[in-house]
């Protein structure tokens, strides 16, 4: 059982319109709704890979009920979301069919009360001892203390459970100091954390700040990993075109699933890159294309990073 | 008791954003949700005026539950909405705080099945005999026959209950032939129905097509009424600035409330104009400002239309 934490869950709504014209009225031609928030996306990919996953975080109101109804329909996925009074936020992505471009509107989400935050911490502490790995994913909702991830990392480490952190900004800065087993930043998050836009230097610096291993996702250049066992680059065999939504969450799912299967680092990175590419290529944002994954997993190139010598 | 019919109910969501920039991501600074659809707006104004109102139409899914929860919180309002399988549509209005302009996205709404349409007609036929007036408002959802309003008008007339129609396009064209007691088109709807952009000529023509009385809402020029008792113009005393959302629904509520209070036509028009202006002036879209209403109701100018002589 893997545990994913999504403190800022969402109902992701996608609208298709023939052409976006600001300050006019649009008839939406297609509406797609799905549970959102990085940890829920990671959980869906893990479940599709055949892993049992428990999801926790916060849920509230009518939108929260829709999110939970959808999650319980996913085989292998256990709902341990903690109720809050305010309604789970919506995100609305408006896709312009003419250009393919997306215009995004993100609601702020409910403010979590101190009592709700305490209730979550209890639930989390009860769940952690029986899982094989934990993923802490995404932004913090209003009301949750900025050091939240640091505390959750310490709880996992005290229970001897490996923990991966995927967040940004101050939550990332505070979290990394609590020594997560794996940090999964993208290029921007890594640069913001370390002040360096040079990935090799930045991953080394992120390890010095506390992360045991750092796996940076560098878009089309694949992954750069700095770990206690060595340093690697993993790159997809071809330039993958498509929708990058959820590609980073697929990397997290790939890393975690391979971790609990006790695969060595090069195999973890191979799986993560192939899953990420198969997500970019899938017709539905955030899903992954199984055939593309099966085809790519044998063709990802993993090289030992000689510059680390 | 007044009955309002809203076949295409909605959950109206308003987002405020600092500035709308197409093809970028926006943090929404304020979210406001309210039940929508013209008949529900009319019902809210009627309830605020102290009238008892029953609302019917269709409701479904999680969005429908939110709409119903909000409606039952309104004193004097009775929920007789008929369940459908598909979810009630959302509308999303994005207000650009810099320019004040609104960009609107309207979901299509659920397709109503023949069985659901039959269930509605039964509910409607059960309600009509015990009410003092009926308002049929707004567009028809997918699946409802285009002649729907004509049938609902005939049912009301057979029960001796006065009926007002406020819709557009083919639903209006088919509905007017069933001889509604009052037709409430705006300038565009009237022109589309009659082919004439000259309101005096067009209101006369709409009466020839079947409407017993026609009250055209002409924006800042107020109302133009052609009735069996005479022809009138009613104009607000000053140019009213603000948000016109819901101004037409306030006209309907004004006309209907004054009808059931047996007021003469000039008083009905005075109330409708004052309510409409008080809605434009209100800070919340679709609400009306009670003080502005009380102040304006004594200052609306109603003139007998001499050109009708």
UniProtKB/TrEMBL annotation, chains A, B:
<keyword id="KW-0067">ATP-binding</keyword>
<dbReference type="GO" id="GO:0044281">
    <property type="term" value="P:small molecule metabolic process"/>
</dbReference>
<dbReference type="GO" id="GO:0008443">
    <property type="term" value="F:phosphofructokinase activity"/>
</dbReference>
<dbReference type="GO" id="GO:0016052">
    <property type="term" value="P:carbohydrate catabolic process"/>
</dbReference>
<dbReference type="GO" id="GO:0005524">
    <property type="term" value="F:ATP binding"/>
</dbReference>
<dbReference type="InterPro" id="IPR017583">
    <property type="entry name" value="Tagatose/fructose_Pkinase"/>
</dbReference>
<dbReference type="InterPro" id="IPR011611">
    <property type="entry name" value="PfkB_dom"/>
</dbReference>
<keyword id="KW-0418">Kinase</keyword>
<dbReference type="GO" id="GO:0005829">
    <property type="term" value="C:cytosol"/>
</dbReference>
<comment type="similarity">
    <text>Belongs to the carbohydrate kinase PfkB family.</text>
</comment>
<protein>
    <submittedName>
        <fullName>1-phosphofructokinase</fullName>
    </submittedName>
</protein>
<keyword id="KW-0808">Transferase</keyword>
<dbReference type="Pfam" id="PF00294">
    <property type="entry name" value="PfkB"/>
</dbReference>
<feature type="domain" description="Carbohydrate kinase PfkB">
    <location>
        <begin position="12"/>
        <end position="283"/>
    </location>
</feature>
<dbReference type="InterPro" id="IPR002173">
    <property type="entry name" value="Carboh/pur_kinase_PfkB_CS"/>
</dbReference>
<keyword id="KW-0547">Nucleotide-binding</keyword>
<dbReference type="InterPro" id="IPR029056">
    <property type="entry name" value="Ribokinase-like"/>
</dbReference>
């Amino acid at each position: 059982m893997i545990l994913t934490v999504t403190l800022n869950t969402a109902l992701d709504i996608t609208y298709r319109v023939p052409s976006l014209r600001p300050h006019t009225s649009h008839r939406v031609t297609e509406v797609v709704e799905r549970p959102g928030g990085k940890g829920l996306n990671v959980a869906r990919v893990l479940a599709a890979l055949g892993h049992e996953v428990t999801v926790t975080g916060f849920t509230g109101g009518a939108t929260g009920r829709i999110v939970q109804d959808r999650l319980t329909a996913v085989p292998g996925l256990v709902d341990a979301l903690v109720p809050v009074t305010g309604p789970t936020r919506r995100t609305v992505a408006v896709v312009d069919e003419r250009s393919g471009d997306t215009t995004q509107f993100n609601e702020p989400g409910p403010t979590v009360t101190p009592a709700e935050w305490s209730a979550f911490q209890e639930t989390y502490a009860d769940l952690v001892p029986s899982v094989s790995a934990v993923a802490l994913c995404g932004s913090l909702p209003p009301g949750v203390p900025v050091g939240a991830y640091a505390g959750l990392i310490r709880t996992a480490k005290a229970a001897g459970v490996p923990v991966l952190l995927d967040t940004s900004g101050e939550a990332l800065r505070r979290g990394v100091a609590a020594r997560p087993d794996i940090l999964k930043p993208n290029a921007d998050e890594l640069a913001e954390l370390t002040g360096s836009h040079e990935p090799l230097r930045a991953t080394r610096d992120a390890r010095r700040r506390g992360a045991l291993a750092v796996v940076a996702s560098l878009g089309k250049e694949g992954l750069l990993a700095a770990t206690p066992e060595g340093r690697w680059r993993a790159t997809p065999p071809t330039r993958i075109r498509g929708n990058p939504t959820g590609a980073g969450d697929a990397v997290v799912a790939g890393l975690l699933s391979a971790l609990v299967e006790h695969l060595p680092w090069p195999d973890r990175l191979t799986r993560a890159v192939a899953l990420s590419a198969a997500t970019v290529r899938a017709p539905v944002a955030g899903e992954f294309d199984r055939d593309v994954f099966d085809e790519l997993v044998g063709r990802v190139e993993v090289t030992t990073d000689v510059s680390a010598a």
